[in-house]
Specification:
By secondary structure, the protein is mostly helical. It is about 80% helix and about 0% strand. The chain is built from 4 helices and no strands. Helix 3 runs antiparallel to helix 4. The longest helix is centred in the last third of the chain and has 35 residues. The termini are far apart.
Length: about 120
């Protein structure tokens, strides 16, 4: 079965608009993700450690995650208890732990550049 815009009932312009929106969002996300290292290196010029930087990052991003969770949960079936714990574990490993190690590495790189 074909999945062309005509077979899904969507006009071609609608699919193109979704494609361009996705492309713009991915380009913005790439630029912001790359800028994170620059901002972290600027922050490390002050007497802070990786824990302080990740704490600030989490405090700034927390309202956005709450807003997305509320928006996506409207009308959705509630999660089971085990699924909630899996999501918490995945969030810890995927967000906190990876971010902590990333900022810790940037801290050591920045410290090495200052001593050179």
């Amino acid at each position: 079965m074909s999945s062309s815009p005509a077979s899904t009932g969507q006009p071609a312009g609608h699919a193109r608009r979704h494609y361009l929106n996705g492309l713009a969002i991915s380009m913005l996300a790439s630029a912001l993700f790359s800028g994170k290292a620059v901002v972290a290196k600027l922050i490390y010029q002050y007497p802070v450690d990786a824990v302080m930087v990740i704490s600030l990052r989490m405090l700034l991003s927390f309202p956005f995650f709450i807003a997305i969770a509320v928006w996506k949960s409207r009308g959705a079936q509630p999660l089971s208890g085990p699924d909630r714990w899996r999501i918490v574990l995945l969030g810890f490993c995927g967000y906190y732990l990876s971010s902590f190690l990333d900022f810790l590495g940037l801290q050591y790189i920045t410290a090495g550049m200052e001593s050179a």
